[in-house]
Write a structure and sequence with these properties.
- The complex is a heterodimer of chains A (about 600) and B (about 375).
- Chain A has about 600 residues and is of the alpha+beta class.
- Chain A folds into two domains: about 180 residues, Penicillin-binding protein 2a (Domain 2); about 350 residues, DD-peptidase/beta-lactamase superfamily (Beta-lactamase, 3-Layer(aba) Sandwich).
- Chain A is built from 23 helices and 21 strands.
- In chain A, a hairpin with a 5-residue loop joins strand 8 and strand 9.
- Chain B has one domain.
- Chain B is built from 14 helices and three strands.
- Chain B has a three-stranded antiparallel sheet.
- In chain B, helix 6 packs parallel to helix 8.
- The N and C termini of chain B lie close together (about 10 Å).
- The chains are: A alpha+beta (about 600), B mainly alpha (about 375).
């Protein structure tokens, strides 16, 4: 028994060591199972459970007559689970899907938190691609065909600025609790109506809870909460009017806004050139993005809300109302126009060099005599003009929900002192009274202004949803006779032989309107009368604001053509086309309603 | 000699036998749970295979109880030579499994000679230690080391079966220390050991296969490779921890069957058990092992001769090392060396060889009285 010979029994010592070993194991078990048990239980649950958010089908957007403007189209996508996919299959797969093998292996090899999250390899598979893959399913472990839904904008570029588009969640939106329930790859409204009514259209995301194994494979569905489809919305837009408007602007740069004067509903909103929202829906390619944003004409700019230019002679309406209301003129007040007005050493020309002769208010508006308004404006002073312009919604936002709206500018003496640190000159009043100089407005402001002329002086906030309660922002304190005088004169602009807006004369309805030509080149420089000789960038901007029918306006419209030349020749015909399209469409709608009844 | 008489049955160590049978039955239930397929309805046959191996093991145990263990000493040299030859055969024509060649096939069967070699090795050094009078001197220590330890160690590491290689070295060291070394031998061992450790470590590191290196790296720094070995340790801790006090219940564990745990029915089987049975169940299972080891030590104390004493001690050490390293590994306090939990993990050869070793242990206890007729 040598083991016992030297001192204490060594086997007993071994026994103690073993006991210590057991105590260590038990302490560790205590630590893992009792002290940290909760946390490990949670990790094991999240190991086991996979929560998949299911995006709800998006609501459909209709035009005011019930024509769908978008549709949700299901399509196939090929996704791969890198952890299960055999890299050697990339070649074979690339041949079927017709994409480079490097692109496939590149996508697979990007490091991700788990090798079992799926990666999209190709979207919008053709039927042939799907059938080939399904037939050879067993050759490609880890390859899955899934169904996704895309948003198709049926009319493409038409109405794109209003309807907008969907885009991927941006990194900051991913942090936003508002979008917490959405899947990470979800598309949400990033522009236009799609953006501003996203919550309505989006619906309520559903949820699927799966039990998964370590390879991320779904073993069984434990719980399912179906998504709730988003609400449909009906826009105030009339797609026929919109189409006509965009057609009229083909090749031109500019904007058009058509409103329902009694409600503020937007019937049409054109910004030209436009863009195709379909290109944004599935993540725009860099090339497409560059092509759109680098264009000098800036198609992404919503000119109806964002371009601010001098309103030119359309502004004479404001000067006229101010002068009537302030008692400076009445319908009989006459001025003499000899083609220019002298003020100090300066000459202010009328557009008609020969002059208009003796002019009253009606003639001044119909023939757009500048000298008449120089004179009236001089008597009014800029601050009075400012006051009335603001009452009619100019120089401030109209409050339309679509973002990025600009304010334009209506100057006054205080403004000039504050920003230019200089006193106001009378000469500036003179040119301001015909809508030149510092004065600038947006097309939508002008549409709101002309609406107020026809609806008895109510400023409505322009709205894009049909049958939403009108939002009156205020009633202008003007005499109804004043507005009637203006309306009659505006009808004369189109109807009378010498009217500047004859080009808008329609056979099917009566149109009233006012032309405007905003000078690009200062009065000193002269080009020949023939506008075709003038380089485009020096050509004047053309305006036309109008309403119809004359007796009880149902549509108010403002048309702006950048470098279009004369308002009468360039903008007025567009207004006429769009108004007629609207009237015809309306007639058709009423007929079909009659038949149904 | 092979006659089983009443005295033999009376002196048979029923306590240790049923303790180990209990461990194996719990093991089979856990293998059943770990390998159940959550998706398909067909059950995998691992637990049936393990059950058959258990029957074979009990048979082996009975055979190794039935003859006087002194015979083992007598046939130890030819057994040892045969063992070395088998290890060589594995090296030359072995089957590869899990990145290492450990198996040799005989017909449809395949087995791991290294599993049986451990017992042969313990018998061999027990015989030599028992022939030494008093404490072990330097010369005998070195001789035993080079002839009976270093040679098989190199063969095992070559396979590579680092786990078994380390186990025989540790058995050798713990046995020597328990036997008592002469002061000079002890000091020399400590000096040589501490001087050569870094060098040996470096040499070993160079010889290690990549998967072995990654195991060691992952032990030191589990965050390095989330899907590699560190991932295994983490999932093992998650499985054990999520069992909490009373466990998720039999067949309710998810870490194993859903494949979060690697080697769920072999090396990491304890994690599956601890997930389903919790702290209480683990405490019970550890008590069974405690009983086994303590009974083994007691057997060594009571053995009638030095050979039996050292042999019992060697076998008990073997069980203990496997037990502590395996449980320590699944608990994340030992490196992942890939050795199974004795009597519990799935693995036929290991189960059989462990039951044979247990048979030898019971044999020694049964014949503990010097006057045995």
């Amino acid at each position: 028994m040598q083991i016992k010979k030297n001192g204490p029994d060594r086997i007993v010592i071994v026994g103690y060591i073993i006991v210590i070993g057991f105590i260590i194991l038990l302490l560790r078990l205590w630590q893992l199972q009792i002290l940290q048990g909760d946390e490990f239980r949670r990790i094991s649950e999240s190991n086991r459970l996979r929560v998949i958010n299911v995006q709800a089908p998006r609501g459909i957007i209709f035009d005011r007559n019930g024509t769908p403007l978008v549709k949700n189209t299901p399509y196939f996508i090929a996704t791969v689970i890198p952890g299960e996919f055999d890299g050697n299959n990339a070649d074979a797969l690339s041949k079927i899907l017709d994409i480079p093998a490097e692109e496939i292996s590149g996508k697979i090899n990007i490091k991700r938190p788990s090798p079992f999250t799926t990666i999209i390899i190709k979207k919008r598979l053709s039927f042939r691609e799907v059938s080939v893959i399904e037939a050879r399913r067993t050759d490609f472990p880890g390859l899955i065909i899934e169904i996704a839904v895309s948003r198709d904008y049926i009319y493409g570029k038409t109405g794109a600025h209003a309807i907008g588009y969907l885009g991927k969640l941006t990194p900051s939106q991913m942090e936003d609790p508002e979008y917490r329930d959405l899947p990470r790859h979800a598309f949400i409204g990033q522009w236009g109506v799609e953006k501003y009514f996203d919550k309505t259209l989006r619906g309520i995301s559903g949820q699927k809870i799966f039990e998964v194994d370590a390879l991320g494979r779904e073993i069984r569905l434990l719980q399912e909460k179906p998504p709730v489809k988003g609400d449909d919305i009906t826009l105030s837009l009339d797609i026929e009017l919109q189409k006509e408007g965009e057609k009229s602007f083909e090749g031109l740069t500019g904007a058009l806004v058509a409103l329902q004067p009694e409600t503020g509903e937007i019937l049409g909103l054109v910004s030209s050139p436009s863009f195709d929202p379909n290109k944004f829906v599935n993540g725009i390619s860099y090339a497409d993005w560059a092509a759109i944003t680098r264009q000098k004409t800036m198609p992404m700019l919503n000119r109806a809300l964002q371009s601010q230019y001098p309103p030119g002679s359309t502004f004479k309406i404001i000067t006229a109302i101010a002068a009537l209301e302030e008692g400076i003129i009445d319908t009989t007040t006459k001025k003499y126009c000899n083609g220019r007005m002298n003020y100090g050493k300066w000459n202010y020309n009328c557009w008609k060099k020969k002059g208009h002769g003796s002019v009253n208010l009606h003639k001044a508006l119909v023939e757009s005599c500048d000298v008449y308004f120089y004179e009236v404006g001089r008597q009014l002073g800029i601050d009075k003009i400012y006051e009335y312009a603001l009452k009619f919604g100019l120089g401030r936002e109209t409050g339309i929900l679509l973002g990025g709206e600009r304010k334009g500018l209506i100057p006054n003496t205080r403004w000039k002192m504050a920003t230019k640190n200089a006193p106001w000159f009378l000469g500036e009043t003179i040119i301001s009274s015909i809508g030149q100089g510092y004065v600038s407005t947006t097309p939508i402001q002008m549409a709101v202004m002309i609406s107020a002329i026809t609806n008895g002086g109510i400023i409505y906030r322009p709205v894009i949803l049909k049958d939403s309660a009108p939002v009156p922002l205020g009633k202008i304190d003007v005499k109804p006779e004043t507005l009637k005088i203006i309306r009659d004169s505006l009808l004369g602009v189109v109807d009378e032989p010498k009217g500047t807006g004859q080009a808008a004369k329609s056979a099917i309805t009566t149109i009233g309107g006012k032309t405007g030509t905003a000078q690009v080149v200062s009065a000193g420089q002269q080009y020949s009368e023939n506008s075709k000789d003038i380089p485009e960038k020096y050509r004047d901007h053309a305006w036309f604001i109008a309403f119809a029918p004359g007796e009880k306006a149902e549509i108010a419209i403002s048309v702006f053509v950048e470098h279009g030349g004369h308002g009468g020749s360039k903008a007025a015909p567009i207004a006429k086309r769009v108004i007629e399209a609207y009237m015809l469409q309306k007639e058709k709608q009423e007929e079909s309603t009659d038949v149904q009844n | 000699m092979f006659r089983i008489d009443r005295t033999l049955i009376r002196n048979f160590d029923w306590l240790i036998f049923f303790t180990v049978i209990a461990i194996s039955v719990i093991g089979i239930l856990t293998i059943f749970s770990a390998t159940r397929q959550p998706m398909e309805s067909t059950q995998s046959p691992f637990y049936i295979k393990q059950f058959i191996w258990l029957l074979l093991g009990v048979l082996g145990l009975i055979v190794f109880v039935s003859f006087d263990y002194i015979w083992l000493s007598r046939i130890s040299v030819p057994m040892y030579i045969a063992g070395l030859i088998f290890l060589l055969i594995v090296l030359i024509s072995g089957k590869t499994g899990m990145g290492a060649q450990r198996w040799i096939g005989i017909g449809p069967m395949s087995f791991q000679p290294s599993e049986f070699f451990k017992l042969i090795f313990i018998i061999m050094i027990s015989r030599h230690f028992s022939s030494i009078q008093g404490s072990i001197g330097i010369m005998s220590l070195l001789r035993i080391f080079f002839v009976f330890v270093f040679l098989p160690f190199m063969l095992l590491v070559k396979q590579p079966d680092l786990g078994t290689g380390l186990v025989i070295i540790i058995i050798f060291i713990t046995l020597s220390l328990t036997m008592g070394l002469q002061k000079k031998a002890l000091i020399l061992t400590v000096i040589i050991g501490s001087v050569s450790m870094p060098f040996l470590g470096n040499l070993m590191w160079e010889r290690l296969e990549d998967y072995q290196k990654s195991r060691l790296i992952a032990f030191v720094e589990p965050g390095v490779d989330p899907s590699g070995i560190g991932y295994h340790i983490k999932q093992s801790k998650v499985a054990i921890g999520s069992g909490e006090f009373s466990g998720k219940g039999f067949l309710k564990g998810t870490q194993g069957p859903f494949r979060f745990l690697p080697e769920k029915h072999t090396d990491f089987i304890f994690a599956v058990f601890a997930e389903e049975w919790g702290f209480i169940g683990s405490l019970f299972l550890l008590s069974l092992y405690f009983l086994l080891i303590m009974r083994g030590l007691d057997t060594a104390r009571k053995a009638k001769d030095d050979f039996g004493k050292i042999l019992a001690l060697g076998i008990t050490f073997m069980f203990s090392i496997y037990f502590f390293v395996n449980i320590g590994m699944t608990l994340g306090i030992m490196p992942v060396v890939g050795i199974p939990l004795p009597f519990f993990s799935y693995g036929g050869t290991a189960l059989l060889s462990n039951y044979i070793s247990l048979g030898v242990l019971i044999n020694i206890r049964t014949r503990r009285f010097a006057l045995f007729y």
